[in-house]
Amino acid sequence: MYGIQVSEFGSEDVLVHTELVVPQPGTGQVRVRMRAAGVNPADTYVRSGTYEFFRPELPYTPGFDGAGVVDQVGAGVDTVKPGDRVFVAAQGTPGCTGTYAELAVVDAIAVHPLPAGLSFAQGAAVGIPCVTAWRALFQRARLQPGETVFIHGASGGVGLHATQLAHAAGAVVIGSASTPAGADLVRAAGAAHVLDHGSAGHLDELTRITDGRGPSVIIEMAAHLNLEKDLTVLATAGRVVIVGSRGSLDFTPRLAMVKEAAILGLALWNATPAEKADALAGVAAHLRDGALAPIVVDTLPLREAAAAHRRVLEQGTRGKLVLIPE
């Protein structure tokens, strides 16, 4: 079989498309013939060798997320069987990488039924993006029906799913996007309002839209750019959940005092098994009822993994980028 192998940490150039040994499932494991593999920013951090949460032994095959058909099951597995359509959400499980390949062996706990109405590419978009969105909204922010939530970068992989989930939960959703095409995706996902985050002062619009109250919850994808301003527009006793940050900032702590705000960090790697199971159960229920429909904007052949790693970090990325084994 063929897949991507990383033999040294570094830039995307270390992603090599090559022939690999066919993996065999052990006790409690499942082998999946991958039809699609999701590309996440976390994949690029792991590849660099500097990611504080996870550093795999070399050589390794990247990829936490994917979808395909069960090919073989190991001893003790009765949750799925050969021929089942499934999605893989392996982040946080032992030996959790490996979906950038034609065949991947993962723990059975990482394999979940893929609803008939979803494509394999959509299934590959579920794992990290949807679980992150669920955890941000419901496990960290404790979002309630009727509250207003503002989602920075709502046209991205996490943002679109957070928009869909918050809308399904009965919240009023305001999102931001940097392009008209991205704004259209955010509206279609359930946002009542979409702001142009390339426009100076766009966060001031939140005060007008909410009649001066501000949003109760802000999902923040770039805290190094926005956190201080978030606290000036947040509702009193509001919550800011930091999903992403790529730098430092000068910060005025008094702003948090004035709003009695809660600033909540999120790292998916810190989720307990119970929290991850809760998130996956909620995500799976909304996949079945149609409230959550992963949005794949583009696919690339698996051999173009290096290009995918460059693109997933670009500004203005819309929806999900997925790799397809040849």
Automatic annotation (TrEMBL):
Respond yes or no to whether keyword NADP is given for this record. yes
Residues of the Enoyl reductase (ER) domain: 10-323
List keywords of the entry alphabetically.
NADP
InterPro entries membership:
ADH-like_C (IPR013149), ADH-like_N (IPR013154), ER (IPR020843), GroES-like_sf (IPR011032), NAD(P)-bd_dom_sf (IPR036291), Zinc-ADH_QOR/CCCR (IPR051603)
**Do the record's keywords include NADP?**
yes
Q: Which Pfam families match?
A: ADH_N, ADH_zinc_N
Among PANTHER family, the record links this protein to:
QUINONE OXIDOREDUCTASE
Q: What is this protein called?
A: NADPH:quinone reductase
Q: Which organism is it from?
A: Streptomyces prunicolor
